[in-house]
């Protein structure tokens, strides 16, 4: 099933919002961002430890809104593609979540009841 996570114009550049879906029988936390006009979504999980990037406050960008950052250790990820360019997970990428966008909203696939 599809979960609507945003309206098409919801986020401005450098903004983010969290959501939760069910994948392979488990809840997975994700986040949606807009960067240079484009929407991206990733699982909210650092690639070096299975902890969230934010402190449950939807703060994913660094202060310049150029990179996504692990708030605990400072690892930096590229917003477009999720590649870690600095930190213990350098060279690995966040797990992307496919988006479907049309004039009625931005949707992600979930196997069960999701939430935003
Ligand atoms: S958990 Fe990986 S850099 Fe923070």
Determine the number of helices (DSSP H or I, runs of at least 4 residues): 0
What is the β-strand count?
9
Strand order of the largest sheet: 1-9-8
Helix content: under 10%
Secondary structural class = mainly beta
Straight-line distance between termini: 15 Å
Give the DSSP E fraction (strand runs of 2 or more residues). Answer: 35-45%
Let me know the average pLDDT. 96
Question: CATH first level: which class?
Answer: Mainly Beta
The description of the largest β-sheet is: 3 strands, antiparallel
Name the overall outline: globular
CATH topology: Rieske Iron-sulfur Protein
Protein model, in words:
The chain has 116 residues and is an all-beta fold. The protein has one domain (2-109): Rieske [2Fe-2S] iron-sulphur domain (Rieske Iron-sulfur Protein, 3-layer Sandwich), CATH 2.102.10. Helices cover 0% and strands 38% of the residues. It contains no helices and 9 strands. The strands form 3 sheets. The protein has a 3-stranded antiparallel sheet, with no helix packed on it. Strand 5 and strand 6 (76-77) form a beta hairpin. The radius of gyration is 13 Å and the shape is globular. The two termini are 15 Å apart. The model has no long low-confidence stretch (mean pLDDT 96). Residues 46, 48-49, 51, 70, 72-73, 75, 87-89 line the site of FE2/S2 (inorganic) cluster.
